[in-house]
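<discrete_fold_record>
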Amino acid sequence: MRIGFVGLGKMGGNMVERLLKGDHGIVAFDPIKEAQEEAQNKGAVSASSLQELVDKLDTPRAIWIMVPSGTPTEENINALSSLLSEGDVLIDGGNSFYKDSMRRAQWLKAKGIALLDAGTSGGIWGLKVGYCLMIGGEASVFRQLEPVFKTLAPEDGYAYVGASGAGHFVKMVHNGIEYALLQGYAEGFEILNVKADFNLDLRQIAHLWNQGSVIRSWLLKLAEDAFAKDPNLGSIRGYVQDSGEGRWTVAEAIENDVPAPLITLSLLERLSSRQEESFSAKVVAALRDEFGGHGVKKR
């Protein structure tokens, strides 16, 4: 198939390369010149603007948008909606909030343009092993674009999961689970690391646990790689960012009266990681000293 691709960053650029290797034709656009040239060098047809990208595609057109969620996605969808024709398709592969995807799908449908929300997981490894794709929207449009999904994904690595918004909803919960898994591994390795009596080799243990253990996983393989590069992670600051999906998952759990303590606490731990020093901890220390004379550590 021949499709347009908007957004050639770490994910988007690799996805374009995988599609090109699968013999799809790509018309690519990114405002960053270097990213545009890299895609062109790999075989994509370059477009200098959204208008040129649309002009270089035959109808019915399909355009994959792989830009940050929120305003960048909204702006690109708005701009493309005025350039496309009835029967064209937009695919949002970013981490959009599922209610935004539902709203956008309805708005575009009134213009005769279809929207698929494609939750995409795989990170920088997707080029080599494929991307897990969770796709929402109209089933007939999904089938129309299925050759693209089949190329991007590993075997059994893509699925139509439901109506508009379902793809991004499933991806949102996927990322919430990821928060809890990462936190579980992190806490375990910290307990191992502080036990100075045994001088434990964290890389060795990560490798060991991946050999038949019930907690074996790809994340443990990545932990092994990380410890091999930096055994005590001394070069890394313990600051953990979040991209929004964890917050949305927790909010959804609260809205639907679902207890999700692990995901919630893992999100709060990420927020805690950004504090140089916790004021709330200072309050607790001061109060313990006031009521029990437990003493405080002075700066």
The chain has a mean pLDDT of 95. Residues 92 and 176 are 20 Å apart (CA to CA). The beta strands are 2-6, 25-29, 45-46, 62-65, 89-92, 114-121, 132-136, 158-162.
